[in-house]
Amino acid sequence: MTLSQIRDHGIPLEKVSVVVKVCTVHEAELKNSGGVDVMMQTVTVADATSRLNVSLWSRRIDSMESGNSYEIRDVTIKEFCNVKSLSVGAESVITPCTDIGVVSENIAETGSAERYSGAVEMVAVSLHYLCRSCRKGIDVEEAAIFVRCKGCQMKQKVESLKPSVVAKFSLSSCTNKFTAFSNCVSAFLTNVKREELLNDVEELENYLLGIPQLQITACENVATEMSVPTAGSESMSGVKASVASAEETENVTE
Length: 254
Description:
Layout: H1 3-9, E1 15-25, E2 29-33, E3 36-46, E4 51-57, E5 69-80, E6 83-87, E7 93-97, E8 114-118, E9 120-130, E10 137-138, E11 146-148, E12 155-157, E13 162-171, E14 177-180, H2 182-191, H3 201-210, E15 214-219, E16 222-227
Parallel strand pairs: 4-6, 14-16
Antiparallel strand pairs: 1-3, 1-5, 2-3, 3-4, 5-6, 5-7, 8-15, 9-10, 9-13, 11-12, 13-14, 15-16
């Protein structure tokens, strides 16, 4: 099945097989799926007809490399914000194959992203560290210098671990509860030149609560972009006062 056929006619939860080339491999992130924290990595793939994102979970992380071509069998179609994607499950089979050549640059656009603006009224930030070997979450005790991963048993320096944060918050302009994952929060802190807050939960929460106005773009209450208005910028118009709350869920079968 081609990616354009999946994009235009694919049925959510249907299992399909595709032959694709990897365009971009993103950093793994900690996601909450059905109340359970799991590691997920997004990989952007393409064939001659279109591009889609593929979700790799847990042990499948780093199983695909940028520039290489693969056949993926029994991968599940997902739909989020009216955009199709693929999710690799326990029954999926990823097999390297011959280079498929030139691929499409056509990327599906998000269909229902909304913009919101307001003061942060409530916020809860969770901080996790990722094992450099298996990319699973590691619990780090305060003042610890070394830590051993319970997944792969590799002992590492705490200072070398990659932090991963998840921020859940509400804004004064609506009743929605938003979630911002690590890539979004990290990009925001870089933009406002406060990268040091990524490792300090209390100070990050205090900073967000102290912002007079936070602007976000969100899809089904998952923030994809966060920003602070600059001096002289126009305030956002058409901000929705109430949107039905929805949480992003994934079918994790591993």
